[in-house]
UniProtKB/TrEMBL annotation, chain A:
UniProt keyword Lyase present: yes
Keyword NAD: no
Subcellular localization: Cytoplasm
Gene behind this protein: citF
InterPro entries linked: Citrate_lyase_asu, NagB/RpiA_transferase-like
Assigned keywords, A-Z: Cytoplasm, Lyase, Transferase
One of the protein's GO biological processes: acetyl-CoA metabolic process
Reaction catalyzed: citrate = oxaloacetate + acetate; citrate + acetyl-CoA = (3S)-citryl-CoA + acetate
UniProt EC number: 2.8.3.10, 4.1.3.6
GO cellular component terms, semicolon-separated: ATP-independent citrate lyase complex; cytoplasm
Signal peptide start and end residues: none
Protein name listed in UniProt: Citrate lyase alpha chain
NCBIfam families: citF
Automatic annotation (TrEMBL), chain B:
Full protein name: Citrate lyase acyl carrier protein
GO CC annotations on file: cytoplasm
Positions carrying O-(phosphoribosyl dephospho-coenzyme A)serine: S14
Lineage: Bacteria, Bacillati, Bacillota, Tissierellia, Sedimentibacter
Gene assigned in the entry: citD
Enzyme Commission number, as recorded: 4.1.3.6
Subcellular location: Cytoplasm
UniProt entry keywords in alphabetical sequence: Cytoplasm, Lyase, Phosphoprotein
Organism: Sedimentibacter hydroxybenzoicus DSM 7310
Domain of life: Bacteria
Primary location: cytoplasm
Gene Ontology terms for molecular function: citrate (pro-3S)-lyase activity
Length: 468, 90
C-alpha cells in the first residue's frame, strides 16, 4: 500500500476541495518555502475561488498570494505573522475581509476547538515515507522541528504531506505519524535551504546592542529568578543572541544549572545546552543549521508542538513554566503595550508569533530594543497596534536606561538595589523625543484590514488601512 | 550665495540623509523623500530652509532622500552639500 499521489492537482481533487473551504500551511520553511506558492498556484489554475488560507506565517517569498487575493482565489487569510511585502499590500486594503492574526498558541487552540476547522492541511515535510510518517530533521530541505504543523495534521479533515525526500517505509524517526496522513506528494523541491535556516546566526557587534544585552543580562541576574531550575526563551535578533551569550558566561561562572531553554532555537541556545546551562531544549522551531543538527543528534533537544509550547486551552503549556523571556518591539507605549504587527507608519510587517503567549506565561517578560530607530522613538503615547497587552510586560531595556512596569514594585526594588539605571518610561520617552523631535500623529484609514485576536480569543486591537 | 555646480553630501544609510544640490534659475526647488515623512516632513523642510537662509541661497534645486536623520545631521549634510557646490570656502 502507498499513499503517494503523483501530482498536486490530483491530490487536490482527491481531497474534494470546494469553494469556501479552509486550507492550512505551516511556516517551518520560512522565507525558503515553496509549498504555499505551489499549492495556491495549482488551486488557482484549477479555477477555484473563495478559499480561506490559514497559515502559521506568511513571509516575503509568498508575495504571489497577493495576486491570488486580487483574483478572489484567496478571500480570507489567517496568520500568526506576516512579512512586510505581503503586509504592505494588505495594509493598502486589497482584501474585503480583515486578516485574522492569532498567536502561535492561539492558532492551534482554535484549530483544535473547531473555531477554525481545517478542511485540507498541506504539510511541507523535508523527509517522509510513502505512508506519511514525516519529519523536518532530515533531507536537503531540513528545517528541524515541525512544531507548528501538528495541530494541522491531527485535526484537519484531509492531510497531505508534500516532500522532496521520499524514503523507504517506515521512517522510524518521524515527527508526525502516518495515522493522520491521507496522501503523500513527492515534488522536486519544497524549498530553498538558504531561506529555510540561516547558516549562522550572529550576535550583534553594534555597541548599542551589546550595551542593551549587558543591561538585560544584569536584569536577569538580579531578578531573583536566576537559580537552579531557571528557564529561558529568547529570539534570534542580534541583541537577543548577545543576551544568550552573556547569560551563558554568567550561569557557568555562578554554577547555575537551568531546567530548559525554549524557542525559536538558535545555535546560541544549543551552546548553552551543551555547556550544561540547561537540562533540555524545548523546540517548536529551529532558526539555524546548528539547531537543526542538534535536534537531530541530541536527545535532550526535544521537538514540541505549538499547543504544548503556548496554547491557552491545553491542560498545561510550556510558556506557563517560563521564568524569563526576551522579546522585541517596533513600538511600546507608556502603558507598556507592545506593537509587533505594524511599523511606525502603520504598515503590517510582523505579528505576534509567540510574543503575547510567552509574555502572558513568563514570570519576567523583558522587551529589549533601541530607544530610537531612524528618528523615531520606540516609546509612544499609544502604540499603533496592541499586539501584547502592557499588563503582561514587565521590563523595557534600552541603551538609555531600564523602565520597569509600575505593576512590578518588587522588581523595581530589586533592580534599584542592584544599582541598575532604572528610569520612568515617560522620562525615557522624553529623552527620545529630545533627540528626534515630537512626531506628528500618523493618520490611518477607516478600513479594518486586520483583527488582532489575543490568545484568549478576544480581539484586542484592529489594524487599520494605510492611506497611500 | 550662488550654487555653481552640482554637489552631494550624506549617504542612504539608516539615520542619515542624502542631499543633492544643483544650480537653479528661479528660486528654491526642494524635493523631499523621507521614511519619516508622515511624522516630520514640516520639521525637515524647515531645517533645510533655515540652512539655505543662513547661507543666503536664493536659487537652488535641492533633492533630499532622508533615511530618518535627526535635525543636526540634516543641517550638517545640507551645509556640506552647499559648500561642495562651490559657493563658500569651507
Amino acid at each position: 500500500m502507498s499513499k503517494v499521489v503523483n501530482t498536486l492537482k490530483e491530490v487536490i481533487k482527491l481531497c474534494g476541495l470546494k469553494e469556501g473551504m479552509r486550507v492550512s500551511f505551516h511556516h517551518h520553511l520560512r522565507n525558503g518555502d515553496h509549498v504555499i506558492n505551489m499549492v495556491l498556484d495549482e488551486i488557482a489554475d484549477m479555477g477555484y475561488k473563495d478559499i480561506t488560507v490559514n497559515a502559521s506565517s506568511v513571509f516575503d517569498i509568498h508575495a504571489p498570494i497577493v495576486n491570488h487575493i486580487r483574483n478572489n482565489v484567496v478571500t480570507a487569510l489567517e496568520v500568526n505573522y506576516m512579512g512586510a511585502v505581503v503586509g504592505r499590500e494588505i495594509s493598502k486594503g486589497i482584501m474585503n475581509k480583515p486578516v485574522d492574526f492569532r498567536s502561535h498558541g492561539g492558532r492551534p487552540s482554535d484549530i483544535e476547538s473547531g473555531k477554525t476547522p481545517i478542511d485540507i492541511a498541506f504539510i511541507a515535510a523535508p523527509t517522509s515515507d510513502n505512508m506519511g510518517n514525516c519529519t523536518g530533521k532530515y533531507g536537503a530541505s531540513a528545517c528541524g522541528s515541525l512544531g507548528y504543523a501538528f495541530a494541522d495534521a491531527m485535526y484537519a479533515k484531509k492531510v497531505v504531506v508534500i516532500t522532496d525526500n521520499l524514503v523507504d517505509y517506515p521512517l522510524y524517526d518521524f515527527s508526525i505519524s502516518e495515522t493522520y496522513v491521507d496522501y503523500v506528494v513527492s515534488v522536486d523541491k519544497i524549498g530553498d535551504p538558504t531561506g529555510i535556516v540561516s547558516g549562522t546566526t550572529k550576535i550583534t557587534r553594534d555597541p548599542v546592542g551589546l550595551m542593551m544585552a549587558s543591561y538585560a543580562t544584569k536584569v536577569i541576574q538580579h531578578s531573583g529568578l536566576l537559580q537552579n531550575g531557571f528557564s529561558f526563551q529568547t529570539g534570534a535578533g542580534g541583541a537577543s543572541l548577545a543576551v544568550a551569550k552573556y547569560l551563558k558566561e554568567l550561569m557557568l561562572k555562578e554554577n547555575i544549572r537551568g531546567s530548559f531553554g525554549m524557542g525559536g532555537i538558535t545555535g546560541y541556545l544549543v551552546d548553552m545546552l551543551e555547556a550544561g546551562c540547561f537540562e533540555t531544549l524545548m523546540d517548536v522551531q529551529c532558526f539555524d543549521l546548528k539547531a537543526v543538527e542538534s535536534i537531530r543528534e541530541n536527545k535532550r533537544h526535544r521537538e514540541v508542538t505549538a499547543s504544548h509550547y503556548a496554547s491557552p486551552t491545553v491542560k498545561s503549556a510550556i510558556v506557563n513554566n517560563l521564568d524569563v523571556v526576551i522579546l522585541g518591539a517596533t513600538q511600546i507605549d507608556t502603558n507598556f503595550n507592545v506593537n509587533v504587527h505594524t511599523d511606525s507608519n502603520g504598515y503590517i510587517m510582523g505579528g505576534s508569533g509567540g510574543h503575547s503567549d510567552t509574555a502572558a506565561g513568563a514570570k519576567l517578560t523583558m522587551i529589549v530594543a533601541p530607544l530610537t530607530r531612524a528618528r523615531l522613538s520606540l516609546i509612544t503615547d499609544r502604540v499603533l497596534c496592541i499586539s501584547t497587552p502592557g499588563k503582561t510586560v514587565d521590563v523595557l531595556v534600552t541603551q538609555r536606561g531600564i523602565a520597569v512596569n509600575p505593576l512590578r514594585d518588587d522588581l523595581i526594588a530589586r533592580l534599584k538595589e542592584a544599582k541598575l539605571p532604572i528610569i520612568d518610561i515617560n522620562e525615557l520617552k522624553n529623552i527620545a523625543e529630545k533627540i528626534t523631535g515630537i512626531p506628528n500623529d500618523v493618520k490611518l484609514g477607516d478600513k479594518v484590514v486586520g483583527n488582532v485576536i489575543y490568545r484568549d480569543g478576544t480581539v484586542i486591537d484592529k489594524i487599520r488601512s494605510v492611506v497611500v | 550665495m550662488e550654487i555653481k555646480n552640482k554637489a552631494a553630501a550624506g549617504t542612504l544609510e539608516s539615520s542619515d540623509i542624502y542631499v543633492v544640490v544643483e544650480p537653479n534659475e528661479n528660486g528654491i526647488d526642494l524635493h523631499l523623500e523621507s521614511i519619516v515623512y508622515n511624522q516630520f516632513n514640516e520639521e525637515i523642510e524647515k531645517a533645510v530652509r533655515d540652512v539655505l537662509n543662513d547661507f543666503n541661497v536664493e536659487n537652488i534645486k535641492i533633492q533630499l532622500k532622508d533615511r530618518g536623520a535627526v535635525e543636526c545631521a540634516i543641517r550638517a549634510r545640507v551645509e556640506t552639500a552647499l559648500k561642495r557646490a562651490g559657493g563658500v570656502n569651507s
